[in-house]
Amino acid sequence: MLAQRIYGLALGYEDLNDHEELRRDPLLAVVAGKREMAEPLAGKSTLNRLELTPAGSPIQERYHKITYSAEALDTLLVEIFLEAHGEPPEEIVLDLDATDTPLHGQQEARFFHGYYNHYCYLPLYVFSGDHLLCARLRPSNQDASAGSLAEVQRIVAQIRARWKQTRVILRGDAGFCREELMAWCENHAVDYVLGLARNPRLRRKIARPLREAKREQQRTGNAARVFREFSTARGRVGRARGAWWPRPSIWPREKIRASW
Q1: Which residues, including other chains, have CB under 8 Å from residue 159's CB and lie 6 or more apart?
Q2: DSSP secondary-structure letter at 23?
Q3: pLDDT tens-digit profile of 19-76?
């Protein structure tokens, strides 16, 4: 029954009533591990009993979804990533990303996000290659980096407990360029590559590369990019990009320690 419910959710059938039809679906029966194809899967009433609050649960509501351990799920995602490697890699890159999940009803914690221009959630993801290491559902009325430091601390600690010599690089866009995250990385030997939002000081630093990019674009008719590397007051090494398309655009980025 549990496999049936999980695959039903994955296929977009959240309502238990859907299983009055799905219980006769042969494909769902196969993936759910059904051996006797002539017998139907569980119906809505049976699945509903599965989802009642277990006896002794601290949750007093009678009708409550199946409880779970968020900590165990977080640990499992990283454990699957670790077990996928025969030996510790020399280097891994942890990609931080926040994206929108559009909402079309009056869901709990529903907020309008000005950048995405609609009501949405703003989940946080951490990937390494094709492996998902963290998925955290969040409301959209907060900074894109909210909670990212705690997730990075947890993931890096679990990885280094197994891979002590592996170099860890953190990568994210300008939404994650926050002092607390960079300071933690510097204090724990984690290299990072983070985007830096445009600002007047950075634009002054890349004024010359921008002019060079403009001349190159005018000469070739193609988009042009020119890079400049510099140090910041805290000794960080930055590399900014002056770019020129048929319409001028500036896409500065900053990088610390790890090379672009």
Answers
A1: 78, 82, 92, 166, 168
A2: T
A3: 999 999 999 999 888 888 878 998 888 888 777 766 666 555 555 566 678 899 999 9
